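Appendix B. One record, verbatim.
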Amino acid sequence: MFSTAAHHSSSWALAFALLPLVCGGAETNWLDVESRIQYGYYTEDPRSLAGVMEVLAPADSPSASKSYYAGLANYRLTQLALAKDKSRAKETAEACVNSLDQALKIQRDFAEALALQSACLDVLSSLEAWRTPFASSRSGAQIQKARHLAPRNPRVLLLDAVELYEQPKTTAAEQDRALSGFKKAAAAFEAERQETVHAPGWGAAEAYTYLGRCYLDRGATLDARDALERALLIAPEFAEARRLMTRITSG
């Protein structure tokens, strides 16, 4: 069931970290670019992500895909910086929003760019109180547009659920909504994996890792372990999933 994802994970570890990355025009392999971004995020290596950013800099001929992946790389840098360097996280979150503005100027109905920009705006609203009303409102508008354009897109569903999960949850109903969101995202990723490989294609390992976190929040250890095993089968190098699994196995 997970053989295709496992094959892609081994490719990241053995090939994508070694092969040269060539960007600039129609010959760009965006799956290679995406894999490098994901590998840098999974292994928590900001320098690797910064290296990808060098080849995603704005060019004379703008590209929606190039701007999207610059946004994704900055989103991953933001996630890695949040716990250690809030100032750096603000910078990369702003860069994420700006890159995705460029992508959306080229392709207004780019649902995945709308959802990703919503996630970066949501981070900005949590980091700077003065931004909260504007950034939070714009974040909500962007994810709403994304859901309207692509209601079954797995990355739209994932980012929607992540934003809900990261908000303070005070009731069991809110916790249930977050869990339900990740279940829907995971199911959408399973459906997508039956299709032809395409880019963007990231997110399945993250969906299962968040599912694991939700189950751990509830004390449902067996369900959490199952979700995390799925995440690690897809991305064996995913450090966050490994940490959560260690929490379970160490008792």
